[in-house]
Design brief:
By secondary structure, this protein is an alpha/beta fold. It has 20 helices and 22 strands. α14 links the parallel β13 and β14. The protein binds adenosine monophosphate.
């Protein structure tokens, strides 16, 4: 029997604004890891971390259901790093292996492991397909503690004996459902076979379909199950809160926040961030933009925090940029807007945050900025709270102009009313009268409006491009049955991607899958290389996911013949896929790719 630890049932941290010690200290990790978390500005563990870290530190196997954005990477990386340094440092390398579905995730996880483990002197190496072998071979030879690999490339190295897993103590399967979707099931089996039976295994997956359970049953020993998917009842007040989300890339996030704040012109808003560092950065940028903003986080002394809160209550500050811990206990009734700079890592935090607005019968607005890969998390929150979050397009430059004109109109109207009240409407008449001898009075007024409006325009604002929203696939669980977005490929495709293939699939010659998410028209594309060129279905899925960002779940059946393959893809994305695959190297070479004449 496995133990179940539901993160949301575990005690929330006790941190009050007086004791802003990070909840991380209580988890029993190496002090150097705690120091790097403080440096990164993490204030408290996310629910998945609170639940998974103690179990992993104990050496237990873990089966965790967690989507991107929940803090899952730190949930496995921190204990893995702690255990590397627990007792004698293993002389033999490699000591830990993280398997991930895509090249991009390999790079992200390696970067996270490096960041958290810098003070421990841990060597982490991402290895993924498509990249040249030589540098990977050299790095492996020099010695690596943690390897983060896509399954195909890991197998390549195992076959060449350039990677040995004989001394691996911990194996992590990250985004396991996605790896299965990409046809890596056989590769995973082959890799796990080469690791010691005594290893610790952690499996992280956004969903837990039966296929995941069968991997878990075969490879995890009495795992602690961690799930943060608990239905929560939204506080009654949130019914008065308009909930909106904008999907933007990380690159455009700051600009999008500025745009949204310009449009909404909140009089009292709390902007929530995940880390202290983010709070400070945002505060600096927004202050430089001329907004009355102040930072509130656990790095400030109690006195400083009191002063910041006092100014916000007294309406001397319009924007409070805060972490969750620091804003706890802040009770202000006039908050008009809550902005989530990131999607909160769990639904309860979301409800708690947005409950700060829409109080005392007022209407409130809750705005969430989500990166495309966090879309699933957003939909989870929607499902768990039972309240819709409208995904809207980021306001355009034209929207902004219209809004500024509206503000100009309001300003003028108020000035006229005020002058009337004070019996002071004559001021300025003289100038108007003299101009009226030459021009139409309407033209004179319009020129004055333009001048006033020009004073509002800042520097020329660029348009913020719409980020691709992951298409929906039917939710695998959940009472509402509402679709959840497909998981997988990251939206921000790596630059210079052409010519690389991250992944290889299983040995099967055909991949019988239906594009599950689009539900729209499907077309076949023809790839001019097949079995003889050693192309397998997984190669094609890997190449499409990596080169186009189209998720594996949207790719349909793949048939591999001796000299060619056909792949079913959504009609709307066929041209994109044909162009990208045509430019890429598959199994080391360029192959002709076109729409299939028959299909
Ligand atoms: P992940 O779900 O692993 O993709 O993490 C999502 C984001 O949350 C990453 O940018 C992490 O740096 C950040 N993060 C993870 N854990 C925490 C934490 N405890 N506090 C603040 N930020 C965190």
């Amino acid at each position: 029997m496995s133990t179940t630890a539901t993160a949301s049932e575990l005690d929330p941290t006790d941190s009050t604004p007086e004791t802003l010690d990070t909840g991380f200290a209580a988890l029993g990790m190496d002090a150097r890891l705690l120091a790097s978390l403080t440096e990164l500005g993490y204030e408290e563990p996310t629910p998945i971390q609170r639940a998974a870290i103690p179990a992993l530190l104990e050496g237990r196997d873990v089966l965790a259901m967690a989507a991107t954005g929940t803090g899952k990477t730190a949930a496995f990386a921190l204990p893995l790093l702690h255990r590397l340094n627990d007792g004698a440092r293993p002389a033999e390398r490699v000591a830990a292996l993280v398997l991930v579905p895509t090249r991009e995730l390999a790079m992200q996880v390696a970067e996270a492991v490096h960041r958290y483990g810098k003070a421990l002197g841990v060597h982490a190496l991402p290895i993924y397909g498509g990249a040249p072998m030589e540098p990977q071979l050299r790095a492996l030879k020099r010695g690596v503690d943690v390897v983060i690999a896509t399954p195909g490339r890991a197998l390549d190295h195992l076959r060449r004996n350039s990677l040995s897993l004989a001394h691996v103590r911990t194996v992590v399967l990250d985004e396991a459902d996605e790896m299965l979707d990409m046809g890596f099931a056989d590769d995973l089996e082959a890799i796990l076979e080469q690791t010691p039976d005594t290893r610790q295994t952690a499996l992280f997956s956004a969903t837990l379909p039966p296929r995941i359970n069968s991997i878990a049953n075969g490879h995890l020993k009495n795992p602690v199950r961690v799930k943060i998917d608990r239905e929560i009842v939204a506080a009654g007040e949130t019914a008065r809160v308009r909930q909106v989300a904008y999907v933007v890339t990380r690159f455009h996030k700051m600009a999008a926040l500025g745009r949204v704040l310009d449009i909404e012109s909140p009089t009292a808003a709390i902007v929530f961030c995940r880390t202290r560092t983010e709070v400070d950065e945002l505060n600096e940028t927004l202050t430089a933009r001329g907004l009355r903003a102040e930072a509130l986080h656990g790095g400030l002394s109690q006195d400083q925090r009191d002063r910041v809160m006092k100014r916000f209550r007294a309406k001397k500050t319009d924007l409070l940029i805060a972490t969750d811990v620091a804003a706890r206990g802040l009770d202000v009734t006039h908050v008009t807007h809550v902005v989530n700079f990131d999607v909160p890592s769990d639904a309860e935090t979301y409800v708690h945050r947005i409950g700060r607005t829409g109080r005392a019968g007022r209407e409130g607005v809750a705005i969430t900025l989500a990166e495309p890969r966090e879309h699933r998390l957003l939909r989870n929150i929607e499902r768990l709270t039972g309240q819709p979050i409208a995904v809207e397009a980021v306001p355009t430059v034209n929207d902004l102009r219209a809004r500024r004109l509206e503000l100009t109109r309001t300003t003028l109207r108020e000035a006229i009313l005020e002058a009337q009240e004070q019996g002071n409407t004559e001021a300025g008449h003289e100038v108007v009268a003299s101009l009226a001898e030459e021009f139409d009075i309407f033209d004179i007024a319009a020129a004055a409006v333009r001048l006033l409006d020009a004073g509002r325009q800042g520097t020329e604002e660029p348009e913020i491009p719409a980020a691709p929203v992951r298409s929906e696939r039917p939710a695998s669980s959940g009472p509402s049955g509402r679709g959840a977005p497909s998981r997988g490929a990251r939206s921000e495709r790596p630059s210079g991607a052409a010519g690389r293939v991250a992944a290889r699939g299983g040995d099967s010659e055909a991949r019988a899958a239906k594009p599950r998410s689009s539900g729209g028209a499907v077309v076949k594309i023809f790839v001019g290389g097949g079995r003889k060129a050693k192309i397998r279905p997984g190669d094609l899925v890997g190449a499409i996911v990596n080169e186009t960002g189209v998720p594996a779940s949207e790719i349909g059946s793949i048939v591999v013949s001796d000299r060619h393959c056909t792949v079913e893809v959504p009609a709307g994305k066929a041209d994109l896929i044909v162009d990208a695959l045509g430019a890429a190297h598959i199994k080391g070479r360029r192959v002709p790719v076109r729409r299939d004449r028959v299909g």
